[in-house]
Amino acid sequence: MAFPSAPSALWSVSLLTALFAAAVHSNIVYDDDPLQPVTSDETVSVGGTVTLTCRVAESDNSSLQWSNTAQQTLYFGEKRALRDNRIQLHRSTATELSITIAEVLLSDEGEYTCSIFTMPVRTARATVTVLGVPGKPQISGFESAVPEGGKVTLTCTSTGSKPPAKLRWFRGNQELEGRPNVVESVPDDPTYNVSSELTLEVSRSDDKALITCAVDHPSLAPGDKRSEQALRVLYSPDVEIVPESDLPREGEKFHLKCLGNGNPEPTSYSWQKKDGELPPLAKVDGAFLHFEMLNKSDNGVYLCHADNVIGSSQAEYTLLVQDPTAMSTSSGVDHAVIGGVVAVIVFILLCLLIVLGRYLIRHKGTYLTHEAKGSDDAPDADTAIINAEGGHSGAEDKKEYFI
Ligand SMILES: *[C@@H]1O[C@H](CO)[C@@H](O)[C@H](O)[C@H]1NC(C)=O
Ligand SMILES: *[C@@H]1O[C@H](CO)[C@@H](O)[C@H](O)[C@H]1NC(C)=O
Ligand SMILES: *[C@@H]1O[C@H](CO)[C@@H](O)[C@H](O)[C@H]1NC(C)=O
What we know:
Blueprint: H1 13-27, E1 42-45, E2 50-55, E3 64-67, E4 73-76, E5 79-80, E6 87-92, E7 96-101, E8 110-116, E9 122-131, E10 138-140, E11 146-147, E12 151-161, E13 166-171, E14 174-176, E15 182-184, E16 192-201, E17 210-216, E18 226-230, E19 233-243, E20 254-263, E21 268-273, E22 282-285, E23 288-291, E24 300-307, E25 312-319, H2 329-362, H3 364-377, H4 381-402
Helix pairs in contact: 3-4
Subcellular location: Membrane
Organism: Dicentrarchus labrax
Main location: membrane
């Protein structure tokens, strides 16, 4: 809610420059006349509050007055002239008359006049621009999951903006190019409805992707109003065969698992052996192919087919049964490396321990003093240990200092 009251923060530099130039043009021309009132143009969002300030450099005690776009007097000095509770006196001094208009309406837009009743009367005008705040964007056009390679056309609409809002499309952080915004207006309504279309050719990577429509508007902070639409894409399975282990040994139990990543999930799997029948001891169980007891005669290339309603595909696995005594060469190397590293670490730790032990023996007095001190101050045993450790590290600092 803080934002609509300070919409100018978002104005583009060019707009600000234009406004500033206009302000300079209308008001500061008479800057050398100390009785000339000075005002500034204001921009406010519908529902917000705007403050109109009118100042003179010097006062001859003449009254200042604000009047509205229909030339009705709002305030004459501190006297309220129009009965509208949205309009309140903000400050009235000899050199300033400020008023606020709350719950601003689109119809409040226009030129307000500040006058000072000198001889002759001097006036300054302030243009109030009222921004129509765009509604939350609505995305339509996505009804149900679309097959891979198909096209999806999304439409995003936002109502009630003034000036017309700009709609932008994103997939994650990446901006997508939609068709140019369509701006609609109707007579007697100063606000606009805007819409934008986005057409995407979807691939399997778009399944579950979030498409965002965001509204860009000077009355909003970036990202204030956005909507998301999750895509769902139907695609045939990607198939992969995962073995139970990398070392199938003769005589052991073993299985292959067929992973079919598709949308929808594959409904059926089938197993085959290239150049022959499945071995008698191999049992098909859906996505699994179980071997009760591996035998070198099982060697060969196995195929898994996975099907969903969109299509099917297959993967291959080459089974090479090892001797019952086979050791995994790759993991053997890994073990040797890990063993070596552990040995080196243990050796370093031992060295450290010896150095530390020798140091402790030499500086036993200091160490004990610090430990005792920590334990004495401690309210309980745990803290005593923590304090003692603290004292210990203090002793180490000291060691560095003496050496
Ligand atoms: C304005 O009014 C005050 C008191 O109301 C007076 O002291 C002052 O002299 C007046 N100034 C002029 C310029 O008349
Ligand atoms: C904008 O859309 C709203 C709701 O759909 C409709 O009532 C209004 O008349 C539209 N305004 C314009 C300017 O098209
Ligand atoms: C493998 O199968 C052959 C014949 O099919 C059989 O003679 C042999 O004993 C089997 N080996 C093992 C380890 O079961």
